[in-house]
Design brief:
This protein is α+β, with helices and mostly antiparallel strands and 182 residues long. The chain is built from four helices and five strands, in the order H-E-H-E-E-H-E-E-H. Strands 2-3-1-5-4 form a five-stranded antiparallel sheet.
């Protein structure tokens, strides 16, 4: 069991139950899944890019990414139905906690000029999305072999509909939120 999952079960969960005055331990906010999305707009010209980015995402997450295809053609974007437009990975259980722990302890401190993650990225439904500008901040990615720098969106999906509960859970899990400027 990962250290973060153990910490969640033994420390964070009881603390959240007490803080929000919940009677049942099952009502406590928990992380359901982490979704990682990478857009591949440039893959329309370079077909090999999909395979390269897919391999990098597989190294980062430890799971084979799902290829997302266009549902309809859009002439203005030179997009045809069935073209590859992105990759996504959904992490749950052990892999999710391992990835989250690595993200907060290793990856985010490696981001250049890091001031904390934005407080404005909650969706009003109890989910939080974090954007990274490049995949090279992950230690698994060899900077020398990177063909093209790609960004990614990492969404934390919880079982609650309230942003304040999600924010508190993420704070206790170790998310370095930005400090409010006065």
């Amino acid at each position: 069991m990962s250290q973060l999952k153990e910490k969640y079960q033994k420390e964070i969960r009881p603390q959240l139950k007490k803080e929000f005055g919940l009677e049942n331990l099952l009502a406590v906010t928990e992380l359901k899944k982490v979704v990682i999305n990478v857009g591949l707009g440039e893959a329309l010209e370079d077909k090999k890019l999909t395979a390269v980015i897919s391999e990098e995402l597989k190294m980062i997450t430890g799971q084979q990414p799902k290829v997302n295809k266009a549902r309809q053609s859009i002439a203005g974007f030179k997009l045809r139905e069935g073209d590859t437009i992105g990759l996504s990975v959904i992490l749950r259980r052990e892999r999710m906690f391992d990835f989250v722990e690595k993200l907060f302890k290793i990856v985010l401190p490696r981001v250049r000029d890091f001031q904390g993650v934005s407080l404005k990225s909650f969706d009003g439904q109890g989910n939080y999305t974090l954007g990274l500008k490049e995949q090279t901040v992950f230690p698994e990615v060899d900077f020398e072999k990177v063909k093209r720098v790609k960004g990614m969106a990492i969404t934390f999906v919880t079982n609650t509909r309230e942003d304040k509960k999600t924010k508190r859970l993420l704070e206790l899990l170790g998310v370095p939120f930005e400090k409010k400027k006065d």
